[in-house]
Design a protein that fits this description.
Oligomer: single chain
Number of strands: 5
Distance between the termini: 85 Å
Structural class: alpha+beta
Shape: elongated
Strand content: 25-35%
């Protein structure tokens, strides 16, 4: 049984399926297997999920972090909160009404 069969590799044509890369052996004897998830119907795209590192018979999982996605999420939250604050101020301003 190969390493990919042990990890439960699936066909790469399935949408949302995990795709395992070719196992690569490093100089120190550990084996690295990349993992991606496929998405999209018309134009399938593989997004990295993480890597398995097998060293001395022990497998460890390291998740991939998309810093751009995290930054865009933070900017979107900031934009929405600024817009809501502006709407609240326009609806009822915090300064006194001097028109009376």
């Amino acid at each position: 049984m190969s390493l990919l069969e042990q990890l439960g590799a699936t066909r790469s044509g399935d949408t949302g399926a995990l795709v395992y890369g070719t196992p690569q052996e490093t100089a120190d004897g550990s084996v690295i297997v990349t993992v991606a998830r496929t998405a999209g119907i018309l134009r399938p795209v593989a997004r990295p999920v993480g890597v398995f590192v097998v060293k001395d018979g022990q497998a460890t999982w390291t998740a991939a972090v998309d810093a751009t996605r995290i930054a865009m999420f933070g900017q979107t939250i900031g934009l929405v909160s600024a817009t809501l604050a502006l709407l609240a101020i326009v609806r009822r301003p915090p300064w006194p009404d001097l028109s009376r």
